C-alpha cells in the first residue's frame, strides 16, 4: 500500500557523521511573518567519517545565503534537495555561515519555531531544528551554543534561550536583544528559544554544594496564581536527584515555560524546559488531584533529563529509550518517594502497571510492535511510544530488581563516570550496570532487541511428606512483525509463599545463598531458560504462591488460581501489588465470562457467579486498615480496553455491557457500604493535594460513581449536591462525571453551568470536552455537534485530544458502533489533522491499528476507513507509516 518514497531507516546502517560541529552561533531577528536566522558553525572532520561532504538537514526553510570560511558559495558549489544541503570537498576544519528565512506563524506542525498566542516557542525533538536552519540534525552531533535574540521590545519583552544569560540591552530602534550561552555540549534537539509577553515566578534555591540557583516558571499574564505547585515540584526534583543519585543542577538558572499549543507533555531543552500548560498550571479551582500528581511527575521527568538525556544523550534515535525509559523510571521512583509511605509506593506502582497493561501490552500485540530499541523506522515521531517509555522503564526497573538498590546506584555512577558529555547506546548503559556489579548481563540484552510481551507460565507441586514446594516456570513470547522466533529472556520473578494463616512462609530455596533473599518472605528468582524448576524446602503446610510480586517483570503471568485462592490473596497477601492483582484477576474472570456469554445477544449475560466477587469487594471496601487510595484502586474494575486485550476476538459492545452490568450489581448489593464509605471520606478541611487527602477523595468519588449506577433520585441528588458545593476541581469533576453518565434530569444544566463558570480556563474546558467525549451516551452525532462549539478547534492539540481522542480511544462502545459511523468519523479527523499537524494525526491514526482483533462485522467496516486514509493525497509519512503497517500486518 505504501505510495510515498520515504526511506526506511535501519539501526544497523548507522554511520558516524563525516564532520563534528564544535560551536554554534545563532542570531535571530524575530518576526512572526518572516524570521531571519543567521547561523555560524565551526566544523571539524571526523577521523572515522567516510566522506568529505558536509551533509546538513533542512525542512520548510528558505536558504538565503551560504558561506564557507567567509567565501559565498554559488548554487553550483552545493546540492540542495530532498531535505538535504550537501557541500562537497569540505576542508578538514571550516567556518560555515548559513542564513535562512522561516515563517513561524504559518507553522501549524508545532515543530521548529512557531507562534502560539502571539509568542514564539520552539520544539526541536526529534527533528525540529532542521525547520529553523540547515544543520546535521542528529543526536550524536553535540556542540556548544551561543544565541543572540532580537525582537520588538513591546511585543516580546522576554527573550529566553538555553544556558546562562550573558548580556541584554536595547537596540535603539524599538527592539532589544538578549545573548545566551550554553556552556555544555548538546545535540540540536535540545535547542530552545522563547520570546513573548510572559511573567514569571522565581526563587533562589540553595544547592547541595552551596551554590544558589535561580529557578523560574514563566507563564502568560493571569496565570501566576497557578505556578506554585510546579515550582515546588521543581525544587523537590532537584533535592531528590541530589540525595538519591548524587546529581546536581549544573547551570546558574533553570527555567520552565508553559505554552498552550504543544504536541507533547514537555521538553527537556537544556536549562529551558518548555511545557504543555497542562503540566504546569494548577490551583484547587482548576486542577484535580490527578493534575497535581501529573505536574509533579512531568516536572521531575524533564528535570531528571538534565543528566539522563542531556549530559549523556543518545547516539541515534534507535537508542531513545536510553534516555526516556531511564528517565520514566526515575520520575516514577521520585513520585513514589514523594508519597513517602509503603502503601503510597504500592499505589504508585499499581497505577504505573495499569498504564503499561492498558497501553503497552496491546502495542506489543499489534502491527506497530517494536523492541524497546527499535531496529527501523520511517518517521521517528511514531516511535515516541509506550514501548520506548513505559516498557523501557520496566527494563530499567529490572536492573534494580536484579542488582538491588545499591547495585543499581553503582551502575548509574559508573555510567556517568564513563559517558558524561557523550552520545551513547543502550548497550553502554547495560555494560555499566554489569561491570559495576560484576554481573553477566549478556542475555538481558534481549529485552532491548526482542519485541512482544513474554508469557510466564507457572506450575506447582507440593509434597506434604517431604515438606517441599516446587515451582516450575516456563517462558514464551509470541511472534511479532519481522520477529517470528524469540529467544528466552532474563526475567526476574519475585516470589512469596502465603501460608493458610495468611502470613508469608520463610523461604528456603535449594542452592540459594541467604543474601539473595529479599526479606524472609520474598525472593527474586532468575528465569533465564525456556523452563526451570525451583524447589523450596521446609514448607510444612501447603501454601498459595504469590507470584511476580511488585510486578517484577513486564510479562503476562499464567497460573490457574481458583476463585477462593484469589479471594484469599486479595485479603491476605503481604505484597500490596499482588493483593490488588488478585482482585483484578477475580473481577476480570467474571467480566470476561459475562462478555463471552453475551456476545451477539445484546444482553448482559448471566450474573449468577458474582457472589464471591461481591464478598471480596465488601471486605475490601470496609477494611479501614487499608489506605483509602489502595481501596480505591482495588475497587476499580478492569477497564474495557484491558479486558479487550485478553480476548481472542474483541466485541466492544459485549465488554461494555458486561462491565456496566457488574458495576450495577456491585452498586446494588453494596449500596449501604458505598454510602457509608462516601460519608466517611469527606475532606472538609482546606484543599491539599497530598497523597492521603487525595486518596480519601478518590475513594469517596469511587463510591459516588458506583451509587450513580443505581440511577435513582437519591444518587442524583447526592451527585448534584457535591457538584454544587465542591470546593475543589477534583470533587466537581467527579460529581459532573457521575451526573453525565446517569439519567439525572439536571445533567444538561450542570454541563452548561460548568462551561459558563470556566470558559476562560482552557485546561478546564478541555475537561468539559473530555467528559462528554467519554460519556456512555455520546455517539458520533454528539461529537460532531460538540466540534461545532465555538470553543473547539483542531489546531490546538490539547483541544483535539480532549474530544476526538477521548471519543475514539476512551469510549469504545460508541466508537465501535455496529454501523461503522465511528470509523468514518475517525478517517475524516485523521485526514483533517494530517493537513494541520501530522504528529497529532499519527497518534489518532493508531486508534485502528489493531483492527484485525475485532469481530468480522467490525473489521469489514474498519478496513475501508483505513484504506481511505491511505489513499489520501499529500499524506504525511507520520500517518502513512501507521496505516500501512496496520493494513499489511
UniProtKB/TrEMBL annotation:
<dbReference type="InterPro" id="IPR001930">
    <property type="entry name" value="Peptidase_M1"/>
</dbReference>
<feature type="domain" description="Peptidase M1 alanyl aminopeptidase C-terminal">
    <location>
        <begin position="563"/>
        <end position="888"/>
    </location>
</feature>
<keyword id="KW-0645">Protease</keyword>
<dbReference type="InterPro" id="IPR035414">
    <property type="entry name" value="Peptidase_M1_pepN_Ig-like"/>
</dbReference>
<dbReference type="InterPro" id="IPR012779">
    <property type="entry name" value="Peptidase_M1_pepN"/>
</dbReference>
<feature type="domain" description="Aminopeptidase N-like N-terminal">
    <location>
        <begin position="36"/>
        <end position="190"/>
    </location>
</feature>
<dbReference type="InterPro" id="IPR027268">
    <property type="entry name" value="Peptidase_M4/M1_CTD_sf"/>
</dbReference>
<dbReference type="GO" id="GO:0016285">
    <property type="term" value="F:alanyl aminopeptidase activity"/>
</dbReference>
<dbReference type="InterPro" id="IPR042097">
    <property type="entry name" value="Aminopeptidase_N-like_N_sf"/>
</dbReference>
<dbReference type="InterPro" id="IPR037144">
    <property type="entry name" value="Peptidase_M1_pepN_C_sf"/>
</dbReference>
<dbReference type="InterPro" id="IPR014782">
    <property type="entry name" value="Peptidase_M1_dom"/>
</dbReference>
<keyword id="KW-0479">Metal-binding</keyword>
<dbReference type="InterPro" id="IPR038438">
    <property type="entry name" value="PepN_Ig-like_sf"/>
</dbReference>
<dbReference type="InterPro" id="IPR024601">
    <property type="entry name" value="Peptidase_M1_pepN_C"/>
</dbReference>
<comment type="similarity">
    <text>Belongs to the peptidase M1 family.</text>
</comment>
<dbReference type="Pfam" id="PF17432">
    <property type="entry name" value="DUF3458_C"/>
</dbReference>
<keyword id="KW-0031">Aminopeptidase</keyword>
<feature type="domain" description="Peptidase M1 alanyl aminopeptidase Ig-like fold">
    <location>
        <begin position="452"/>
        <end position="559"/>
    </location>
</feature>
<dbReference type="Pfam" id="PF11940">
    <property type="entry name" value="DUF3458"/>
</dbReference>
<feature type="domain" description="Peptidase M1 membrane alanine aminopeptidase">
    <location>
        <begin position="230"/>
        <end position="447"/>
    </location>
</feature>
<dbReference type="Pfam" id="PF01433">
    <property type="entry name" value="Peptidase_M1"/>
</dbReference>
<keyword id="KW-0862">Zinc</keyword>
<protein>
    <recommendedName>
        <fullName>Aminopeptidase N</fullName>
        <ecNumber>3.4.11.2</ecNumber>
    </recommendedName>
</protein>
<keyword id="KW-0378">Hydrolase</keyword>
<dbReference type="InterPro" id="IPR045357">
    <property type="entry name" value="Aminopeptidase_N-like_N"/>
</dbReference>
<dbReference type="Pfam" id="PF17900">
    <property type="entry name" value="Peptidase_M1_N"/>
</dbReference>
<keyword id="KW-0482">Metalloprotease</keyword>
Amino acid at each position: 500500500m505504501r505510495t510515498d518514497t520515504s526511506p526506511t531507516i535501519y539501526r544497523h546502517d548507522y554511520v558516524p557523521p563525516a564532520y563534528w560541529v564544535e560551536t554554534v552561533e545563532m542570531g535571530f531577528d524575530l518576526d512572526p511573518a518572516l524570521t531571519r536566522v543567521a547561523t555560524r558553525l565551526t566544523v571539524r572532520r571526523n577521523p572515522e567519517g567516510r566522506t568529505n561532504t558536509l551533509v546538513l538537514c533542512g525542512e520548510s526553510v528558505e536558504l538565503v545565503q551560504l558561506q564557507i570560511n567567509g567565501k559565498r558559495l554559488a548554487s553550483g558549489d552545493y546540492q540542495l534537495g530532498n531535505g538535504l544541503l550537501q557541500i562537497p570537498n569540505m576542508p578538514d576544519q571550516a567556518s560555515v555561515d548559513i542564513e535562512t528565512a522561516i515563517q513561524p506563524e504559518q507553522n501549524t506542525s508545532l515543530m521548529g519555531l512557531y507562534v502560539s498566542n502571539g509568542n514564539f516557542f520552539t520544539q526541536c525533538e526529534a527533528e525540529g531544528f532542521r525547520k529553523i536552519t540547515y544543520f546535521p540534525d542528529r543526536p550524536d552531533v553535540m556542540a556548544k551554543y551561543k544565541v543572540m535574540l532580537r525582537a520588538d521590545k513591546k511585543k516580546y519583552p522576554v527573550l529566553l534561550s538555553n544556558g546562562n544569560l550573558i548580556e541584554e540591552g536595547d537596540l535603539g530602534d524599538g527592539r532589544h536583544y538578549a545573548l545566551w550561552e550554553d556552556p555544555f555540549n548538546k545535540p540540536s534537539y535540545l535547542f530552545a528559544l522563547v520570546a513573548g509577553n510572559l511573567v514569571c515566578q522565581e526563587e533562589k534555591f540553595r544547592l547541595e554544594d552551596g551554590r544558589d540557583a535561580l529557578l523560574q516558571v514563566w507563564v502568560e499574564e493571569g496565570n501566576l496564581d497557578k505556578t506554585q505547585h510546579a515550582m515546588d515540584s521543581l525544587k523537590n526534583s532537584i533535592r531528590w536527584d541530589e540525595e538519591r543519585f548524587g546529581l546536581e543542577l549544573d547551570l546558574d538558572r533553570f527555567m520552565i515555560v508553559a505554552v498552550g499549543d504543544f504536541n507533547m507533555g514537555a521538553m527537556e531543552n537544556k536549562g529551558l524546559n518548555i511545557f504543555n500548560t497542562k503540566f504546569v498550571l494548577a490551583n484547587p479551582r482548576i486542577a484535580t488531584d490527578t493534575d497535581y500528581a501529573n505536574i509533579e511527575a512531568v516536572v521531575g521527568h524533564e528535570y531528571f533529563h538534565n543528566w539522563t538525556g542531556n549530559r549523556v544523550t543518545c547516539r541515534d534515535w534507535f537508542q531513545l529509550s536510553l534516555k526516556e525509559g531511564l528517565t520514566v523510571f526515575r520520575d516514577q521512583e521520585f513520585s513514589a518517594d514523594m508519597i513517602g509511605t509503603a502503601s503510597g509506593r504500592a499505589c504508585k506502582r499499581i497505577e504505573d502497571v495499569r498504564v503499561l497493561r492498558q497501553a503497552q501490552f496491546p502495542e506489543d500485540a499489534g502491527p506497530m510492535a517494536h523492541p524497546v530499541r527499535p531496529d527501523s523506522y520511517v518517521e521517528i515521531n511514531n516511535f515516541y511510544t509506550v514501548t520506548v517509555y513505559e516498557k523501557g522503564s520496566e527494563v530499567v526497573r529490572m536492573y534494580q530488581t536484579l542488582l538491588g538498590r545499591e547495585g543499581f546506584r553503582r551502575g548509574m555512577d559508573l555510567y556517568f563516570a564513563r559517558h558524561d558529555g557523550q552520545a551513547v547506546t543502550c548497550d553502554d548503559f547495560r555494560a555499566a550496570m554489569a561491570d559495576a556489579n560484576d554481573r553477566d548481563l549478556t542475555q538481558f540484552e534481549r529485552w532491548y532487541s526482542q519485541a512482544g510481551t513474554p508469557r510466564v507460565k507457572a506450575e506447582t507441586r507440593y509434597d506434604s511428606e517431604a515438606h517441599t514446594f516446587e515451582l516450575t516456570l516456563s517462558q514464551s513470547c509470541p511472534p511479532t512483525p519481522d520477529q517470528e522466533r524469540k529467544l528466552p529472556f532474563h526475567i526476574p520473578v519475585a516470589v512469596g509463599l502465603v501460608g493458610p494463616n495468611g502470613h508469608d512462609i520463610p523461604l528456603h530455596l535449594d542452592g540459594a545463598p541467604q543474601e539473595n533473599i529479599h526479606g524472609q518472605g520474598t525472593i527474586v528468582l532468575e528465569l533465564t531458560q525456556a523452563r526451570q524448576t525451583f524447589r523450596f524446602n521446609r514448607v510444612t503446610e501447603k501454601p498459595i504462591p504469590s507470584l511476580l510480586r511488585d510486578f517484577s517483570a513486564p510479562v503476562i503471568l499464567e497460573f490457574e488460581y481458583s476463585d477462593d485462592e484469589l479471594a484469599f490473596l486479595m485479603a491476605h497477601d503481604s505484597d500490596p501489588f499482588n493483593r490488588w492483582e488478585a482482585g483484578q484477576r477475580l473481577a476480570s474472570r467474571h467480566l470476561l465470562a459475562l462478555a463471552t456469554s453475551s456476545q451477539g445477544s445484546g444482553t448482559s449475560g448471566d450474573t449468577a457467579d458474582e457472589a464471591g466477587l461481591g464478598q471480596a469487594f465488601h471486605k475490601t471496601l470496609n477494611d479501614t486498615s487499608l489506605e483509602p487510595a489502595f481501596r480505591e484502586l482495588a475497587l476499580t474494575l478492569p477497564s474495557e480496553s484491558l479486558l479487550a486485550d485478553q480476548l481472542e476476538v474483541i466485541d466492544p459492545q459485549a465488554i461494555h455491557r458486561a462491565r456496566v452490568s457488574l458495576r450495577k450489581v456491585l452498586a446494588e448489593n453494596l449500596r449501604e457500604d458505598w454510602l457509608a464509605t462516601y460519608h466517611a471520606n469527606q475532606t472538609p478541611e482546606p484543599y491539599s493535594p497530598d497523597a492521603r487527602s487525595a486518596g480519601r477523595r478518590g475513594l469517596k468519588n469511587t463510591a459516588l460513581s458506583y451509587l450513580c449506577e443505581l440511577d435513582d433520585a437519591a444518587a442524583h441528588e447526592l451527585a448534584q449536591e457535591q457538584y454544587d458545593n465542591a470546593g475543589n476541581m477534583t470533587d466537581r469533576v467527579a460529581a459532573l462525571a457521575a451526573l453525565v453518565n446517569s439519567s439525572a434530569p439536571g445533567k444538561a444544566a450542570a454541563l452548561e453551568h460548568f462551561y459558563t463558570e470556566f470558559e476562560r480556563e482552557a485546561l478546564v474546558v478541555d475537561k468539559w470536552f473530555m467528559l462528554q467525549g467519554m460519556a456512555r451516551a455520546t455517539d458520533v452525532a454528539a461529537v460532531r455537534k460538540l466540534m461545532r462549539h465555538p470553543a473547539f478547534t483542531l489546531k490546538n492539540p490539547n483541544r483535539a485530544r480532549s474530544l476526538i481522542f477521548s471519543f475514539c480511544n476512551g469510549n469504545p462502545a460508541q466508537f465501535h458502533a455496529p454501523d461503522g459511523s465511528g470509523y468514518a468519523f475517525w478517517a475524516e479527523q485523521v485526514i483533517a489533522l494530517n493537513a494541520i499537524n501530522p504528529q497529532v494525526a499519527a497518534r489518532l491514526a493508531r486508534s485502528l491499528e489493531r483492527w484485525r482483533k475485532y469481530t468480522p462485522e467490525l473489521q469489514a467496516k474498519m478496513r475501508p476507513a483505513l484504506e481511505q486514509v491511505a489513499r489520501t493525497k499529500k499524506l504525511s509519512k507520520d500517518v502513512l507509516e501507521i496505516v500501512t503497517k496496520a493494513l499489511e500486518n
